[in-house]
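Before the break, one more example. Copy the sequence into your notebook; we will annotate it together after we see the structure.
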Amino acid sequence: MNKELLEALNILEKEKEISKETLFEAIENSLLTACKNHFGKADNITVQIDRNTCDFLVYATKEIVAMPEDVEDDVLQICLEDAKKISKKAKVGEIFSKFTSSKSTPKGWGSYSKHSAEEFFAEGMAKSLTGKSDSYTKALRKLLKS
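Here is what the structure looks like once it is written out:
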């Protein structure tokens, strides 16, 4: 559970009258944008934040192909052998969802992607807080860095 983030969202909702749902959506969109910037596309990526714990899940949906050499785009496809390591029920032609939790860093998720998410979120919040103190933007960046 990310108590600091949940606490910050509660404060922003109360003091700045920005709904927590809007804040959650902004964070999810920020992470999705960071994935797109890092991987070049994010059409198959879904980001979900648990509204009670602030834990997040990043899902990548991929088509299962028969052999490793059949994988034309490793962002959009996974070979059956690799898919079976994650789910024994995997079958060729199916759409496969692979996820990672906030307790582990998604494969290929570099510091650039994390920084990109922080910047995108901070900019969005700064626009939402027009005329408000920049200290909130700085506080949100600090929370996302933890």
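The chain has five helices and four strands. The CA atoms of residues 29 and 114 lie 13 Å apart. Try to locate both features in your own notes.
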